[in-house]
C-alpha cells in the first residue's frame, strides 16, 4: 500500500534557500498510464539554480509557492502504471525533471527515464553533469583533438567531466581550482596544467605559458576568469559560458572594457552560451555514451565525500556548495 511521503517546496520567495523552503507531507499517488513511481535514493544538489528559484529569477520558470524543488534524482521503480513496457519493479533509473529531486518519491513518465545498473551517487552525477559536459564540448564547443582547453571550477561536479572528456579526446587541459587539495585531484584526473588561482595569476600563466592562446575556454565562474579567458583566446577560439557563479547573486556590473567584438573579430573567435535544458535533442545519445565510458572504467565520477543525509540536510548541502568547498558532485542521500 502506498504511503504519504515528504518533499521540499518553496513556501515563500526570500531569495535564500534555507528561509524560502520547507518540508511538507504529500499524499501517496499511483502512477498513471505510461508512468512509474520511483523511490528516490539520491538527489543532485544544484545550489545556484536552487537559489535562483528561491528568487524567481530563472527566466523560463514562474515560481508561485508552494513550488516543488530539486531537479536530478536516482532511485528504484516501486510501482508501474498501465501501458508501460520495458520497466519492472526494482529497476534502477535516473531522471532529470524540475520538481522531481528533493522528494522521497516521484512519479515520472517512462519516456524521460534512463535505466542504469544501480542507484548510486556516481551514476547520478554522470546523468546530470557528465551529460552536460559531453554535450557542451562536442556540440557547442566543437571540440577536436590536439587543442588547448582551459576549464574553470575544474574540480566541481561539472568541471571534473570536462577535464576528463577533453583529455580523452587528445587535448591539453588547463584546470583551474581554488586549493592545493583540489589541484591534486585534478592531476589524478589527467589535467596537464593546474592553476590555483588563489596563489597564481591566471593572466600571467596564460601569457607566459600559452602565448598561442586557448582553443576552448570552458567557463562557469565568470568575472575576472571570464575576462582572462576572453583575452587569451586563440585563432578560432571558442569561449563557452556555462554559468557565472562568481556574481550570480550580485547586481549586474558595468565593466569598463572594450566591447567583446574588438577581441573576437580579428581572431574569428566566438563566445557561445550553454545551458543543458536548451539542448534536449542530444540528451539520450550523450547519456548512453557517458554511462558506457563509466561502465568500462574509462571515466571517473567524483562525488564529494561530505555526507548530507535526509531532506533536512538540503539547505546545508546548498550552502556548502555555494561556499565552493566541494570537490566533485554534491549529492543528498534520501
Structure notes:
- The chain is of the alpha/beta class and 334 residues long.
- It has two domains: 5-119 and 304-333, Quinone Oxidoreductase, Chain A, domain 1 (Alpha-Beta Complex), CATH 3.90.180; 129-277, NAD(P)-binding Rossmann-like Domain (Rossmann fold, 3-Layer(aba) Sandwich), CATH 3.40.50.720.
- The protein has ten helices and 15 strands.
- It has helices spanning 17-20, 47-53, 121-140, 159-168, 180-188, 202-209, 223-231, 260-264, 283-295, 314-322; strands spanning 5-10, 21-26, 35-44, 67-68, 72-80, 92-96, 105-109, 114-116, 148-151, 172-177, 193-196, 214-219, 233-241, 270-273, 331-333.
- The strands form three sheets. Strands 3, 5, 6, 7, 8 and 15 form a six-stranded antiparallel sheet that branches.
- Helix 8 links the parallel strand 13 and strand 14.
- Helix 3 crosses helix 9 (283-295).
Helix content: 25-40%
The largest sheet, given as strand count, sense and whether it forms a barrel, is: 6 strands, antiparallel
Estimate what percentage of residues fall within beta strands.
Answer: 15-25%
What letter string, H or E per element, gives the SSE order?
EHEEHEEEEEHEHEHEHEHEHEHHE
**Whole-number total of structural domains:** 2
Strand tally: 15
The N- to C-terminal Cα distance equals 20 Å
In the CATH scheme, the class of the largest domain would be Alpha Beta
Radius of gyration: 20 Å
Query: If you consult CATH, what is the topology of the largest domain?
Result: Rossmann fold
Explain the layout of strands and helices.
Blueprint: E1 5-10, H1 17-20, E2 21-26, E3 35-44, H2 47-53, E4 67-68, E5 72-80, E6 92-96, E7 105-109, E8 114-116, H3 121-140, E9 148-151, H4 159-168, E10 172-177, H5 180-188, E11 193-196, H6 202-209, E12 214-219, H7 223-231, E13 233-241, H8 260-264, E14 270-273, H9 283-295, H10 314-322, E15 331-333
Parallel strand pairs: 9-10, 9-12, 10-11, 12-13, 13-14
Antiparallel strand pairs: 1-2, 1-4, 3-5, 3-7, 3-15, 5-6, 6-8
Helix pairs in contact: 2-10, 3-4, 3-9
